[in-house]
Amino acid sequence: MTTEWNLLAEAHTALLDAVKGVGADDWNRPTPCSEWTVAQVLQHAAGDQLGFAAAITGGDGPSWNPFAPSGEPIEDPVAFTTVAITAAADAWATVAADAAEVPVPVPPNVLDAVTGVGACALDAAVHAWDIAVATGRPQPLSPWAASEILVAAKQIVEPLRAWGAYAPALAPADGDDAVTALLRYLGRDPEWTA
């Protein structure tokens, strides 16, 4: 069985494209994750993708703590990212679209397949946004992906706020599009600049 997850594919493409756009001097730039540099955000995002893969397959997760990324230089950031997103995509490809219980590395540690893949896509997509805006590039999210991710976010983010994984939600504003609504819900300022 191979399940195609278009949302996850789009989020992974956004993350990989954001990484490809990072210049050699950009890795230590600040990001919307106020305590982390671009390199640390990538280490976190890649680690989370490996964490999702490990939860599904029972295999090994990242060899580093994604919540305490070192920020050390990554020899080949594109390859580093590709390994992580490929592991996650391959793991999710084994999950039926109607699966009611899929192990995941976020509370409550078991989600239905659609919500679980949305959580995995959320992590890749929001960090793609972080990296893109930190390096002065256009935001990479489509309105469709943002809308789909927001559905999953509303099911998993509140408990994670207590752990500091997400800042408090920002108030919506008139005229918010789907991407802006997602960013505000995740506690990110859509107008953030380095």
From TrEMBL:
<dbReference type="InterPro" id="IPR017517">
    <property type="entry name" value="Maleyloyr_isom"/>
</dbReference>
<protein>
    <submittedName>
        <fullName>TIGR03086 family protein</fullName>
    </submittedName>
</protein>
<dbReference type="GO" id="GO:0046872">
    <property type="term" value="F:metal ion binding"/>
</dbReference>
<dbReference type="InterPro" id="IPR034660">
    <property type="entry name" value="DinB/YfiT-like"/>
</dbReference>
<feature type="domain" description="Mycothiol-dependent maleylpyruvate isomerase metal-binding">
    <location>
        <begin position="8"/>
        <end position="132"/>
    </location>
</feature>
<dbReference type="Pfam" id="PF11716">
    <property type="entry name" value="MDMPI_N"/>
</dbReference>
<dbReference type="InterPro" id="IPR017520">
    <property type="entry name" value="CHP03086"/>
</dbReference>
<dbReference type="InterPro" id="IPR024344">
    <property type="entry name" value="MDMPI_metal-binding"/>
</dbReference>
